[in-house]
Amino acid sequence: MKIVSLTLTGNNANSIEAAVASVADWVDACIVIDTGVTDESLAIASAVAGEKYVERKFGWVGDFAAARNFSLAVAKEIGANWAIILDTDERIHLQSSNIRGAIASLAGDVFLVYETNRSYCKEKLFRIPTTGKYVGATHEYFDCGSGVRTFMEAIAFSEVPKTAAATLAKFNRDLEILDRLVKAEPTNTRWLFYLGETLKNLGNNQQAIIAYRDCANLNGWDEEAAWACYREAECWLALADYREAINACAKGLTKHAGIAELAWLAAYASYYAGLNAQAIHWAHMSIAMGKHQGYGKAIQRIGFQYPEAQYEKPYDVLKYALLRKGDAEGAKLAEQLYQNACETRLRNLGN
After folding, report:
1. Residues 6 or more apart from 54 whose CB is under 8 A from it?
2. Is-above-0.85 flag for pTM?
3. What is residue 132's predicted lDDT score, i.e. its pLDDT?
């Protein structure tokens, strides 16, 4: 069994060393794809990987999917059976003492791996040769074709925060690409969702709301449509329009009725809108849908998540709404449940 890591890099001398080091001990080769490096990134990666280092050049064409597909082809070329995607700003964290054994026992073709706080997951581990390909110039996704996609729990990943300058450059780059993708495919909900994300991150909440609404109204993947409504609600909160935030959350629950975060955010917005009774009702709904006292663990989700809202956050809103109502005893119980839910999340997720 031959396992390789696949890393695309430009000028990432400040981050590539720790990325490669997070896998170098247990993979058989560290494949680094040079997309136009002019700094010391390649030399640093080579020093860390040693004899396991494999380098290939790929002329950058402004298309992450093309570069990812090229890297998967290189993995096949050198005889790999498995490949793990590793970006320079990512670190792999093993959750098993026998990772090679865990990989060898897998049934499937494409494996989703969670970020360490379980707020989202990505396709990170691939059986080689792959059954599908990456699609999308940015915020690319893997279309696994006839292959089987499932979860891999023996690995987790984390992302190193970018500098403010690097973050702004990324958002501006993504905005240019996503504008082009949306014009070419105006009914592609993924491009609309990430256009909303980029606009929101750039502080353009009004335009982000339009993109999120367009995404949700197309009624594509239910999780994506519901989370577009969640993000829309966050934009309304940033604009201090609490009633519109509540409306967006309610709409989201018509797209996917199992998203506890929507009910929590509606409770939060209701509290700040002065709708105290509604805040209490929404908080109880979120608790019933959550993972502490509710049935949230039975809801299969692979999209974005906000674990704190699945555990302790609803009790926090409930506590303050009950205090505003004059129910000191109820607020005391809500505080206790808040602490218990916090402990449960930390025990279950580790952060």
Report:
1. 4, 29, 30, 31, 32, 74, 78
2. yes
3. 96
